Amino acid sequence: MKSQAIIIGGSAGAFNTILSILGQLDKRINIPIVIVLHRLKNTTSSFETILQRNTHYTVKEIEDKEQMRNGMLYTAPADYHVLLEEDYTFSLDVSELVNFSRPSIDVTFESFSAVLKEKCCGILLSGSNHDGAKGLKIMAENKGNTIIQDCNEAEFANMPNAAKTLYDQHKELNTTNIINILNNECY
Amino acid sequence: MITLKELDELLFTIKKQFDYDFSDYSKASMLRRIHRFMDIHAMKNAVDLKFELINNPAVFQNFINEIVVNVSEFFRDPSFFKSLQQKVFPYLESYPKINIWSAGCSFGEETYSLNILLKENNLYAKTRIYATDISSNAIERSRKGIYDNTNFKEYTKNYYECGGKESLNDYFVSDPRHSMIHSEFKQNILFSNHNLVADGVFKECQLILCRNVLIYFNSNLQNKALELFYQSLPIHGFLAIGKKESLRFSSVYENFKEIDREEKIYQKIK
Ligand SMILES: C[S@@+](CC[C@H](N)C(=O)[O-])C[C@H]1O[C@@H](n2cnc3c(N)ncnc32)[C@H](O)[C@@H]1O
């Protein structure tokens, strides 16, 4: 089943991988991409600007109740969890940190999976904590397409490793193969 | 755990049985909060939950207090409080008496932060603050004004970032674990229960703060709440919403002027 959205979760060491993936994505792909990256609060970073230089998508930080659209690449704002509603609008949430994180990758994976079921693709990249493992498992159980970065390639393997330990049926792929699978399956 | 469909049924039952209408809340957030509640209370499915809610009144009150998100902090988004002092306080000065509504005040962090800044800007004496929340637990906690010390390092940092000149600790009485806000900061605040879904205008206010509350509503209910704020403001009154919230989708959008686009501070112009 074709995915309706790609959700990428990453922490320490994930940023360059994200740039490589975006840069080599087939230009005809336009399903929404949502990026949940752990970052510091109360700082304005040039994160979105750098992403914009590396993608054919339009990059935008998520605003509450905004409609999720094709051709858009969304980033989770610092200090908010990102949820998806049944009408494909985003909701933001300031509830407790999850895995010491807000935004938490687990929260977004789980929420998107509840709405999109098998029609979503979750990718978990490098990071030095355990965020994302639980959410990716839920996504896999809902028959979504779940991918973790090759633990040998990831700069910090804890995060993909935790996902693998919790559930051993995710596709474990290096950056080149992540790009290939997206180019084959998302267009 | 429960599905989105069971959630709809549950919210319908709650509305009929208890007259609390959560049907226009964000479903995605409700689902998370209800799962959390069920986890804490070792409930396995929708049937368990419904049974407990209907047969045990204490559980229901607890349910209300726990499905809302009370997470807050002192001087959340320092850049907002800085802008408020620079762009709104000078206007407020011109009024002989100032009413402020802090809607969705949680445990009082935002309201007391505001009050500290009013004091430092010599506006305190002529200001009355109405601080409201749907949760009775939140109102009780706000009245007490007691906070865990663990987060004070961050609060102090926030306080300085928004331009505070004193020592934040001086505004509290502390023991090794807790800090209580000085009673003088409670005197001009009236904390009370108010439900933005069901209750109406209660006072004209020159400034309304409703931050990180609207994110828990769907667009329909956001619009309703914003209309309520519109009605509670005089011409030239100010409205501040959360940093990632928007007036754009609401029917009153045209009636406001942007005072600070980033910090989401607006002024009613018609
Ligand atoms: C996340 S807190 C926001 C606290 C503070 N304003 C801030 O920005 O840090 C949201 C608050 O909105 C309150 N709330 C939720 N639904 C409400 C309603 N229908 N009427 C009034 N308050 C409500 C909750 O009880 C909670 O205290």
Automatic annotation (TrEMBL), chain A:
Keyword terms, alphabetized: Chemotaxis, Hydrolase
EC code: 3.1.1.61
UniProt catalytic activity: [protein]-L-glutamate 5-O-methyl ester + H2O = L-glutamyl-[protein] + methanol + H(+)
Span of domain CheB-type methylesterase: 1-178
Gene Ontology terms: biological process: chemotaxis
UniProt-listed InterPro entries: CheB_C, Sig_transdc_resp-reg_Me-estase
One example GO MF annotation: protein-glutamate methylesterase activity
Residues forming the catalytic site: 11, 38, 131
A GO cellular component entry from the record: cytoplasm
Sequence intervals crossing the membrane: none
PANTHER family the UniProt entry points to: PROTEIN-GLUTAMATE METHYLESTERASE/PROTEIN-GLUTAMINE GLUTAMINASE (PTHR42872), PROTEIN-GLUTAMATE METHYLESTERASE_PROTEIN-GLUTAMINE GLUTAMINASE 1 (PTHR42872:SF3)
Protein name: protein-glutamate methylesterase
Species per Swiss-Prot/TrEMBL record: Flavobacterium flevense
Phylogenetic lineage: Bacteria, Pseudomonadati, Bacteroidota, Flavobacteriia, Flavobacteriales
Gene: cheB2_2
Automatic annotation (TrEMBL), chain B:
Stretches assigned to the CheR-type methyltransferase domain: 1-257
SMART domains tied to this protein: MeTrc
Gene3D superfamilies tied to this protein: Vaccinia Virus protein VP39 (3.40.50.150)
PANTHER family, per the entry: CHEMOTAXIS PROTEIN (PTHR24422:SF8), CHEMOTAXIS PROTEIN METHYLTRANSFERASE (PTHR24422)
Identification of the protein by name: Chemotaxis protein R
InterPro entries, sorted: Bact_Chemotaxis_MeTrfase (IPR050903), CheR_C (IPR022642), CheR_MeTrfase (IPR000780), SAM-dependent_MTases_sf (IPR029063)
Source organism of this protein record: Flavobacterium flevense
GO molecular-function terms, A-Z: S-adenosylmethionine-dependent methyltransferase activity
